[in-house]
Write a structure and sequence with these properties.
It is a single chain. This protein has a four-stranded mixed sheet with strand order 22-23-1-24, covered by helices on one side. The chain has a four-stranded mixed sheet with strand order 2-15-17-16. It has 14 helices and 24 strands. Helix content is 32%, strand content 27%. It folds into two domains: 205 residues, UDP-n-acetylglucosamine1-carboxyvinyl-transferase, Chain (Alpha-beta prism); 206 residues, UDP-n-acetylglucosamine1-carboxyvinyl-transferase, Chain (Alpha-beta prism). It is of the alpha/beta class. It is elongated, with a radius of gyration of 21 Å. The structure holds uridine-diphosphate-N-acetylglucosamine. The site of uridine-diphosphate-N-acetylglucosamine has 23 residues, from helix 1, helix 5 and helix 6.
């Protein structure tokens, strides 16, 4: 288990290149289950969750080879239809295999993912959609088993715009002949990217990125090549880190169109942000103005940037409110930030943050990917040394975050804990 040591208080300066999106790559890799032909996916970040996904694909019978940021996936005989608990418990997104496997084989067995640090995270919306397409559900020893002689196209309206449920249904629909429509669909850029990939596989997909997606499925999909979009959450985390630590950073390849809510909040806080075709530049100095945010489905403020934003706002001039509307208990980082001198009062889904002039380095513990990123942001801005434990959470979502930050002048190093 690795830890980070951060000697804070240094501004960030220089250029970093944004990696491919984890949350776009995961469903795209899983969508290769829809075809037996080879697929080549590039700009795939090298992350723990990606390795878990590739292991899941191999367990299901795919042949996988990785070279740098490019993954080749091909058939290696018949596919299996069971996603085992030891993989699902490591990564909830494993449940996305349900849609494509059900469409192809009329049967899938997926271990139930259970809750996690940030919320209960049921999969009822995924199941509701698949049932509308004709799947029957039963429970067996902690697993969900879904069966359908053949899935049928349907008109599905989601009770909430769940990202995962939208992706699962798009994949199920792509392999089911006929037209399926998904209403109240999630509109995240990662869904748009999945739509582009499903189109390259031969399905007809329109409206991905809007709240009404139309998928015209075909029985046999072909192989394809695809380049994954840049990671807006990594981009956002680095922008917030630069704002909190001060300095000037250029993020090459970052797509400002995916981050309007964050860029607006950064500007309100006093950072100078310039977005162009090549990337995003941010300059910042001194304490920010306190800016309240509320997490929302895209294009609202992303829940995955709530924790880093809170870390930044602990230094705000004045106080602000941070409301978490996507997950029930995504404030575990507040207590850790408190160890560094932050003043945060959590009541239910709202955290009131009163800015302090400076944070002090301390020993803190990451509890999930983005909470971990928030502690790194705080450590970069703090006086003295911060020691972040359980970096494996951060490694699930950020490719060598310490190396990127070191290139920007941060003093951060990874140490293997005894
Ligand atoms: C995805 C992202 C995650 C991000 C989240 C919200 C991936 C791999 N992960 O997660 O980083 O934080 O979107 O932007 O892309 N819900 C239900 N029933 C369901 C499904 C979801 O009640 O069947 C609830 C969840 O418990 C949660 C909320 O809906 O409170 C949002 O979940 P969802 O949009 O599905 O997020 P994920 O796809 O799990």
């Amino acid at each position: 288990m690795d830890d980070f040591f951060i000697d804070g208080g240094l501004p960030l300066r220089g250029t970093a290149v944004v990696n491919g999106s984890k949350n776009a790559a995961l469903p795209i890799l899983i969508a290769t289950l829809l075809t037996d032909e080879p697929c080549v996916i590039s700009n795939v970040p090298r992350l723990r969750d990606i390795r878990t996904t590739l292991r899941l694909l191999e367990t299901l019978g795919k042949k996988v080879s990785v070279s740098g940021h490019t993954v080749r996936i091909s058939a290696a005989g018949a596919l299996k239809t069971t996603a085992p608990y030891d993989i699902v418990k490591q990564m909830r997104a494993s449940v996305l295999v349900a849609g494509p496997l059900l469409a192809r084989f009329g049967r899938v067995r997926v271990a139930l993912p259970g809750g996690c640090a940030i919320g209960l995270r049921p999969i009822d919306i995924h199941l509701q959609g698949l049932r509308a397409m004709g799947a029957r559900k039963s429970a067996e020893g902690g697993d969900v088993v879904l069966r359908a002689r053949s899935l049928r196209p349907a008109k599905v309206r989601l009770r909430f715009a769940s990202v995962g449920a939208t992706e699962n249904l798009m994949m199920a629909a792509a392999g089911t002949p006929g037209v399926t429509t998904i209403e109240n669909a999630a509109r995240e850029p990662e869904i748009e990217d999945l739509g582009v990939f499903l189109r390259s596989l031969g399905a007809g997909v329109t409206g991905a990125g809007t709240s009404r997606i139309r998928v015209e499925g075909v029985p046999l999909l072909r192989g394809a090549r695809h380049r994954v979009i840049p990671d807006r959450i990594e981009t956002g985390t680095l922008l917030i880190a630069a704002a909190a630590a001060g300095g000037t950073v250029f993020l090459r390849g970052a797509d400002a169109g995916q981050l309007t809510a964050l860029l607006g909040a950064l500007r309100k806080a006093g950072a100078r942000v310039r977005a162009g075709a090549a990337g995003i530049r941010i300059s910042s100095q001194g304490r920010p103005r306190a800016v309240s945010i509320q997490t929302r489905p895209h294009p609202g403020f992303p829940t995955d940037l709530q924790a880093p934003w809170m870390a930044y706002m602990t230094l705000g001039r004045g106080s602000c409110r941070i409301r978490e509307d996507i997950f029930e208990r995504r404030f575990i980082h507040a207590a850790e930030l408190g160890r560094m001198g932050a003043r945060i009062d959590v009541r239910g889904r709202t955290a009131a943050v009163t800015g302090v002039p400076a944070l002090e380095g301390a020993g803190v513990m990451a509890s999930d990917i983005r909470a971990g990123a928030a502690l790194v942001v705080a450590g970069l801005a703090a006086r003295g040394r911060t020691y972040v434990q359980r970096v494996y959470h951060i490694d699930r979502g950020y490719e060598r975050l310490e190396r990127t930050l070191r290139r920007l002048g941060a003093r951060i190093r990874r140490v293997r804990a005894p």
